[in-house]
Specification:
Layout lengths: L1 H12 L7 H7 L1 H14 L10 H4 L20 H10 L1 H8 L13 H24 L3 H25 L10 H31 L14 H11 L11 H5 L11 H40 L11 H21 L1 H27 L15 H46 L3 H32 L19 H36 L18 H17 L1 H30 L7 H15 L11 H9 L8
């Protein structure tokens, strides 16, 4: 196996791809900027302020292009998710700090990484801009062309050097097939946009409506709140009760879908990179074991180094096997976390919609507005970083647990020491059983002898009222010294449990691992809460429905006013002055409301005359 990998490595050392992906990233800025300028020129400015003569020549062109609405976007969610997925390889380069477009001293590495992130964002900006642009026909052509360029360059890079130095054959395919899949999806999406826009442009199909202010699922949520709850709830299946229940009145925003898709692809790439590093380390360990074999004497040698060398070789072999075996459970744990985070997002945001904030820590119930706005900008990147680092930490923890299991149970049995293992295991279980039994016995004695009887037969437990106080004080005194030793074990158990739960939940950004009162120190959890607040204030279905009613009513009143003015202007009757209209409306109002006459100030002869007139009742 080592010779095969060596031949593959030598084969790839002679392979030089004419298409370097890093250099292409630099050159891709040229078409990217061109597409941005074209779409900005076609983007109409809705609110044009008074400008000088030079900028007035541009008219209403060169509006601001939105790559993605990170708050209230619910359509084209999977298209945006695939656009995020196409950036996965470059995101991994940024995560490993391997992509540095500029050479700078170490103290300026943060600025270099910022410049690299901006360059990657500008290079992939056309994918998002073409999906969100209002000029559907032009954006479909530009988006299809740009996606085809990236797809062709990636295919060319794979065909030139398909093999690698670590995995071996087809290493480039292993790394780039997720990006190719996302680019293929985008090609199909832009082609569909082009065909549909062309049919609309030719008049073969009616144009679709613009993005509605009130989404359909938000309207259904409000309707559900206004309905009477059913008298008998429908039965749920095991999957709906234990795992997930689909809600037709709820949709995840495009930000959450895009973050989840990108997190899945980045997790896959991280596992592949980790396996490549493990392969390299395993080869170095094989060389080290070969050197150790040269120091081992004949079988009958009773030297000092021979047992140590054998134990080191056994440790290396066990570590390699445990690390490979724990890749699958660590991966499944992080995949489960990604789905669970989506379920927790829906649960938390629906609680906020109903006005329930009791599930939030007290220290995080009053985040500032600026912190919440920054939180929604941080969330996507931090979620991916938490998943990747969480996978590595969980993998290390599971490997340590596997090593403990191997050395405490498996290896002693393979070395014919099974009886000793069973004896030690039995003693340990018996000791723990006795300790737990004494703790249970203390609770039973307290409930039986040191509490007063129940006040009524319907009480579930005895009241917290002491009985037999002298015996109780003697009980406390004699168990004081034993509880000191028992508390030492409980303290160590608390520390061990905190370490295990902390490392196990490190990838969960939706759950804090800090103690109560210190939740604000968990920056990831604070980001999660701030993101929830922004979504709650901007996508609450009740609030959006109320604003939709106000906007719709304003538009209807404005339309009626325009129609009424048009009708008055088009009428062929004699023109009446505005002052006469006002007086006529005043007279009509006073006739219908006679009580207002006494409240008016008499100014002028006409007003006093009107005040002295015998007004009819409102019924007449």
């Amino acid at each position: 196996m080592y010779s095969t990998s060596l031949r593959t490595r030598q084969l790839n050392n002679t392979c030089v791809s004419p298409m370097d992906m890093e250099f292409f990233l630099h050159y891709s800025l040229i078409p990217s900027i061109f597409i941005i300028l074209v779409l900005s020129f076609l983007q109409r400015q809705k609110h044009c302020r008074q400008r000088d003569d030079a900028s007035h020549l541009l008219g209403k062109h060169f509006g601001i292009i939105l790559p993605l609405d990170f708050v209230g976007m619910f359509n084209n969610r999977w298209s945006y998710g695939m656009a995020f997925g196409a950036t996965a390889n470059k995101v991994m380069f940024l995560f490993s700090e391997g992509y540095q477009p500029l050479q700078a001293p170490k103290w300026a590495q943060a600025m270099v990484l910022l410049v690299g992130g901006l360059e990657v964002g500008l290079s992939y900006f056309p994918f998002f801009a073409c999906l969100s642009s209002e000029s559907r026909l032009v954006s479909a052509i530009l988006g299809f062309s740009y996606s085809l360029i990236w797809f062709s360059v990636t295919i060319l890079h794979i065909t030139q050097c398909p093999h690698g130095q670590f995995i071996g054959r087809y290493e480039s395919i292993v790394f780039y097939w997720p990006s190719l899949l996302c680019l293929t999806f985008l090609l199909g999406r832009f082609l569909y946009m082009f065909i549909k826009s062309l049919r609309v442009h030719l008049g073969w199909e009616l144009p679709t409506e613009e993005k509605p202010f009130l989404e359909a699922h938000q309207a259904e949520h409000v309707k559900l709140l206004l309905r009477k709850p059913p008298l008998q709830e429908r039965t749920k299946s095991w999957f709906q009760t234990r795992i997930y229940e689909w809600d037709p009145c709820f949709q995840f925003p495009s930000r959450m879908i895009g973050t989840t898709v990108l997190a899945f692809i980045c997790l896959y790439l991280f596992i592949v990179i980790e396996f490549c590093v493990f392969t390299h380390v395993r080869e170095e360990l094989d060389l080290f074991e070969g050197k150790l074999d040269s120091h081992i004497g004949p079988p009958n040698d009773t030297g000092i180094l021979t047992p140590v060398i054998l134990q080191v070789k056994e440790l290396i072999s066990v570590a390699k096997g445990v690390w490979v075996v724990t890749i699958l459970p660590a991966s499944l744990t992080c995949v489960n976390y990604l789905f669970h985070i989506l379920a927790c997002y829906r649960k938390h945001i629906k609680r906020l919609w109903s006005g329930n904030k009791h599930f939030l820590p007290v220290t995080l119930r009053s985040l500032s507005s600026s912190e919440s706005v920054v939180a929604i900008a941080r969330y996507s990147g931090w979620q991916i970083a938490y998943i990747l680092w969480g996978y590595l930490i969980i993998h290390v923890m599971q490997s340590l647990c596997g090593m403990m299991l191997m050395y405490s149970l498996v290896l002693p049995i393979t070395h014919s020491r099974g009886l000793e293992v069973l004896q030690g295991l039995g003693i340990g279980i018996l000791t723990i059983t006795i300790i737990v039994g004494i703790m249970i016995l203390q609770v039973w004695i307290a409930a039986s002898f040191f509490l007063q009887p129940k006040m009524t037969s319907t009480d579930k437990q005895k009241p917290l009222a002491l009985n037999n106080r002298k015996a109780f004080h003697n009980f406390n005194y004699f168990l004081f010294f034993y509880n000191v030793l028992l508390g030492l074990g409980a303290c160590l158990s608390r520390l061990l449990t905190s370490c295990i739960l902390g490392t196990w939940l490190i990838a969960r950004i939706d759950r804090t691992i800090m103690q109560k009162g210190y939740e604000r120190a968990d920056m990831g959890f604070s980001t999660w809460i701030g993101m929830l607040y922004v979504d709650h204030y901007h996508t609450n279905p009740v609030l959006v429905s109320f604003c939709h009613i106000l906007i719709t009513g304003h538009r209807e009143r404005k339309l009626q006013r325009v129609i009424k003015c048009w009708y008055l202007n088009q009428s062929a009757g004699p023109r009446v002055s505005a002052r006469s209209k006002t007086r006529w409306l005043l007279l009509q109002t006073l006739i219908n409301n006679p009580s207002l006459v006494q409240l008016r100030k008499a100014q002028g002869r006409g007003s006093r005359a009107c005040a002295q007139m015998p007004w009819p009742s409102s019924e007449s």
